Amino acid sequence: MVRWTIIVAVFCVGCATQRKLPPDMVFNTTALRNDSTWFGTARAIRLLPIGSPDSVRQFNIHIATDILFPGRDMPDSAFPYTATGCKGDCRQSQILSFYNIPLKRGKSSIGKIDKKRTIENERTSYWLVGYSGGAYKRYLFKGRKPGWIRVTSYDKYSKVVEGRFAVRLDEDLSLTSRLINEIKPVVKFSKGLFRVKLADVKVE
Asked: In this predicted structure, what is the pLDDT of residue 12?
């Protein structure tokens, strides 16, 4: 009996201390990228076939930021550049995407959700983007640990979904004309948190 009491107590403490974004957080996504502060604005999208009921139980997340990275050419300006995390209008510099995430509480393997893709581009990816929008680098999930995303809550009335993620991605060396800079060939996102309203998009 004492043993089971300790196990339950430890489990409850873990639930109580589960990390989430503060209510007054400026950005709806934060993380550490290679142990440095990283933040951005996420969009959560559920694709619904036209004429179907609201029954699709998976969604995609696209996180964009305008944080600068080495090698991104910026036009000359009299004003110092300040990253906004892509709140409102911005020129995206980095995009992190996850696809086919189950719309329910629980932890999902990146490897498993990537296998659900119906087209090649629907896989977990991280892009470095030039000022004019061109692709500089792409990173893909190739099985490294950590590699997971967890939905911690979903309110079907407000359509707000919250969660966490941690993933290591490898540079896609097949991308032609990729940027050569000091960013490591393996990018690690850790302590990722998001809270975003789900948008339904009708598709044919």
From this structure: 38
